[in-house]
C-alpha cells in the first residue's frame, strides 16, 4: 500500500502541479481520498520528504506556502522544457509524411510530459503550407532503413508516385522494378524524408522520397560506403532534391538577393562584389532541373555565366517558358 500511495502522489503532482500551480499537502490528501488510497498526514509527509530528497528519481520541489501553514509541492524537472516540446510539436506538425491522425496522437503524448495547466500552452497553433501525405507503410519503412544503415545491410524495395488520377503507380508497372540500394543516410528536405544511397544497378548515388517506397526488405548482404562520400556535402549540392552531375557554377546576382543566397549557401559562401548593383557567387552544385528552376525563380536578377552546360540549360528553359506564354502571339 505504501508504494501505491507514493506512486499516486507522484501521478497527482505530475499531472496537476507546476511552479505556477503548486499543490499543498491538503490537496494531496484529498486526491488520495478520492482514489480510496489510505494515507494519513504523517505518512504523506514522509512520502514527500523522500520525494524532495536526492534519493528520489522524480524530484519534487517544495516551498513555504503563503496560503496556509503547510508547504507547497510541485514537480520542476520534467525532462523537457515547454519550448523544447514546442520545437518537437512544430516539427511533427510540419512533417508532411506524418498523417493528420498520427500527428495528433504524438502531440497528445508530448503533452503528457507537462502538467495539465502547462499543456494548455502546447495547443497546436502552427499553420503549415503543405498538405499531409498518407503513407501507410511509412513507419515500418523508416525503421527498416535506419536499421539497415546501422548494420550496413543492403535493402530492396519498390518505388512509385501518384498519377493525375490520384492512383499510386509503382515504377515500371505493370511489371514493377525492384531497387537494390546501399543505404547511406536519411536527410530531411522541404518537410519530407529522403533516403540517400548507392543504386547497385545504375551504379551511382541516388535519393528516394521515403513515403514513396513500398515493400522494403533488408537483405543479408553487407555493403561499404564509397570512400570519400560525405552525405552533408551531397545534401548541400542539391536543389529541390533533383539528381544530376556535380560541377562548379558561377552566377551573378543583383545585390537585393544577397540574403536569399546567404540563406541557401551560408556565410562562408564565395561571394564577391562585381559592381554597385551586382555580386558574383562561385560554388559547387548538382546541375539539374531543380537548380535551373531555382535560378529562374529570381528572373532577370540572376545570370549564370559558368559552366556553359548550365547556361544552355537556362536558355532552353527560358525559351520553353517564352513559347508557352508568348509564342502563340507571334
TrEMBL record:
A Pfam family matched in the record: WCX
Start and end residues of each WCX domain: 249-321
WYL domain residues: 141-218
Record-given protein name: Helix-turn-helix transcriptional regulator
Lineage: Bacteria, Bacillati, Bacillota, Bacilli, Bacillales
Amino acid at each position: 500500500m505504501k508504494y501505491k500511495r507514493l506512486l499516486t502522489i507522484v501521478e497527482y503532482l505530475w499531472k496537476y502541479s507546476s511552479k505556477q500551480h503548486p499543490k499543498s499537502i491538503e490537496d494531496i490528501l484529498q486526491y488520495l481520498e478520492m482514489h480510496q488510497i489510505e494515507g494519513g498526514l504523517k505518512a504523506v509527509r514522509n512520502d514527500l520528504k523522500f520525494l524532495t530528497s536526492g534519493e528520489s528519481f522524480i524530484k519534487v520541489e517544495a516551498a513555504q506556502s503563503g496560503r496556509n501553514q503547510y508547504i507547497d509541492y510541485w514537480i520542476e524537472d520534467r525532462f523537457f522544457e515547454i519550448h523544447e516540446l514546442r520545437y518537437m510539436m512544430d516539427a511533427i506538425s510540419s512533417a508532411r509524411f506524418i498523417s493528420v491522425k498520427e500527428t495528433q496522437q504524438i502531440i497528445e503524448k508530448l503533452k503528457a510530459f507537462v502538467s495539465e495547466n502547462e499543456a494548455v500552452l502546447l495547443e497546436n497553433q502552427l499553420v503549415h503550407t503543405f498538405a499531409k501525405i498518407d503513407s501507410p507503410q511509412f513507419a515500418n519503412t523508416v525503421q527498416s532503413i535506419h536499421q539497415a544503415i546501422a548494420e550496413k545491410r543492403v535493402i530492396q524495395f519498390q518505388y512509385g508516385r501518384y498519377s493525375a488520377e490520384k492512383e499510386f503507380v509503382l515504377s515500371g508497372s505493370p511489371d514493377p522494378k525492384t531497387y537494390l540500394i546501399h543505404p547511406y543516410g536519411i536527410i530531411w528536405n522541404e518537410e519530407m524524408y529522403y533516403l540517400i544511397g548507392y543504386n547497385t544497378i545504375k551504379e551511382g548515388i541516388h535519393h528516394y522520397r521515403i513515403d514513396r517506397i513500398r515493400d522494403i526488405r533488408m537483405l543479408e548482404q553487407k555493403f561499404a560506403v564509397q570512400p570519400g562520400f560525405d552525405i552533408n556535402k551531397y545534401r548541400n549540392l542539391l536543389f529541390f532534391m533533383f539528381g544530376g552531375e556535380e560541377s562548379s557554377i558561377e552566377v551573378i546576382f543583383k545585390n537585393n538577393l544577397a540574403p536569399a543566397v546567404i540563406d541557401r549557401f551560408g556565410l562562408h559562401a564565395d561571394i564577391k562584389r562585381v559592381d554597385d548593383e551586382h555580386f558574383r557567387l562561385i560554388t559547387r552544385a548538382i546541375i539539374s532541373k531543380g537548380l535551373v528552376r531555382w535560378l529562374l525563380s529570381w528572373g532577370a536578377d540572376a545570370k549564370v555565366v559558368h559552366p556553359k552546360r548550365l547556361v544552355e540549360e537556362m536558355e532552353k528553359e527560358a525559351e520553353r517558358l517564352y513559347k508557352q506564354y508568348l509564342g502563340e502571339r507571334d
